[in-house]
Specification:
The complex is a heterodimer of chains A (234) and B (163). Helices cover 85% and strands 0% of the residues of chain A. In chain A, α3 runs parallel beside α6. The mean pLDDT of chain A is 80. Chain A has helices at 4-18, 23-31, 37-65, 70-100, 107-119, 121-145, 156-192, 194-233. Chain B is 67% helix and 0% strand. Chain B contains 9 helices and no strands. The longest helix of chain B is centred in the C-terminal third of the chain and has 19 residues, at 144-162. The N and C termini of chain B lie far apart (49 Å). The chains are: A mainly alpha (234), B mainly alpha (163). At the A-B interface, α1, α2, α5 and α7 of A face α1, α2, α3, α4 and α6 of B.
């Protein structure tokens, strides 16, 4: 049986003869754009930016609408500021993701960088996208429920549960879609170097625990704030 | 990218197109997948070209971008499980299509390589392309010693699959 090196030498000659990729074809394939994982990861972020921008516009509209109700207007301005920060954060992550493929790293370092990014900053961005849904829902509620410039809401508990559900559902959905990518990257890293994966796993476990605690605290804070505001006003 | 840079990029690509074909042949099971991966790698090379500083050979840089893209970016196709060896019956189930321009022996080798995991595919291709262990280490981030150990194991695995 021939050695694989020997067989390959033959392949080399045949492939040299097979190469047909003109400059035009190269430029055409560049213009067709990317269908990579990165492009897939950008979609939820872009969606979050769109929803948060819509929420920000609605908050501006509501700030004028509730001009005569000072406490509520202040609360709206506060939420507007939060929404703007959210848009800026999501936008910064879009830029970061776009730059990631251009990093001049070897495969090992690139895998570590991507896995670490997906489990830290991108994870935060997913919380941001979920929060944008809650903010958009709340501002729509502000607009349609209150024709007289007085905000009144009766079933606060049900509403809070609804917001919580919307938040968790959105987060869960994006997280689920991300799981496959995360697993594939980790598998590749595992195949490249087992020891590194163990180190990284420990690091990621710490990240995840901290992320969960901070996200839960933040969510409780936002929901308590909204509920408190609703109680005070009504 | 300026007009001059674009011209230089196209020239360099034309000189090294075989690399693109080989990487895609190793990572893809059919013409459609190959087309997708070629397009994605070309796009990544195009985007990264302005930052190429001639610190390494163009071909090494090209391999690095190509492998990074193949391993971390494209995930449309169905993947094979990692297997140690194949029986004749299992061998018939390999989904990789023959490449019409290549003879049977080379297609058989490509099929065997298609059963390796993503990392092994890259390393064996670099080895077959007569890249030094140092260069393979530069592309993958492994030490030269690790590279040599992996190559011995992959070759043994391929021999077992093909026998």
């Amino acid at each position: 049986m021939k050695e694989i090196d020997e067989i390959w030498t033959g392949a080399d000659k045949q492939i040299e003869g097979d190469v047909s990729f003109s400059p035009e074809a190269i430029l055409e394939s560049i213009n067709e754009g990317s269908r990579s994982i990165t492009t897939g990861l950008l979609k939820p972020l872009r969606f979050g930016i769109m929803v948060a921008t819509m929420a920000a516009c609605m908050f501006v509209y509501n700030a004028f609408f509730y001009g005569g109700n000072l406490p509520l207007m202040l609360a709206i301005l506060l939420l507007l500021a939060l929404t703007v920060v959210l848009i800026l954060y999501l936008w910064s992550q879009v830029r970061q993701l776009r730059r990631m493929d251009l990093l001049d790293l070897n495969l090992h370092d690139l895998l570590i960088h991507k896995i670490s990014y997906l489990n830290s900053r991108y994870n935060w961005a997913m919380h941001g996208v979920s929060l944008s849904i809650v903010l958009a829902t709340f501002t729509i509620n502000l607009t349609i429920e209150n024709p007289d410039g007085i905000f009144e809401m009766r079933k606060i508990l049900i509403l809070s549960v609804f917001y919580l559900f919307a938040y968790l559902f959105t987060y869960g959905l994006i997280k689920l879609s991300l799981r496959v990518v995360d697993k594939q990257l980790k598998n590749a890293l595992f195949n490249l170097e087992e020891q590194t994966l163990r180190d990284l796993d420990g690091e990621l476990r710490k990240h995840r625990r901290l992320n969960r605690i901070i996200a839960f605290g933040f969510l409780v804070l936002v929901l308590t704030g909204i509920a408190f505001m609703l109680f005070t006003i009504s | 990218m300026s007009g001059e840079q674009e011209k230089l990029f196209l020239e360099r690509m034309a000189e090294n197109l075989a690399i693109l074909h080989k990487v895609c042949n190793v990572y893809c099971n059919n013409a459609e997948e190959k087309q997708d991966l070629m397009q994605e790698i070309t796009l990544q090379l195009w985007k990264a070209f302005p930052s190429f500083r001639e610190q390494s050979k163009f071909s090494t840089w090209m391999y690095r971008i190509a492998f990074n893209t193949a391993v971390t970016n494209i995930r449309k196709s169905k993947r094979h499980p990692i297997i140690e060896a194949l029986s004749d019956q299992q061998n018939e189930l390999i989904e990789k299509e023959d490449i019409p321009s290549l003879d049977d022996e080379i297609n058989k080798l490509y099929k065997a390589i298609s059963l390796l995991n993503e990392i092994e595919k890259g390393i064996i291709l670099l080895y077959l392309e007569k890249r030094s262990y140092a260069e393979i280490g530069e592309i993958t981030g492994l030490s030269e010693k690790n590279v040599s150990v992996k190559i011995v194991r992959i070759k043994a695995k391929l021999k077992k699959i093909m026998s």
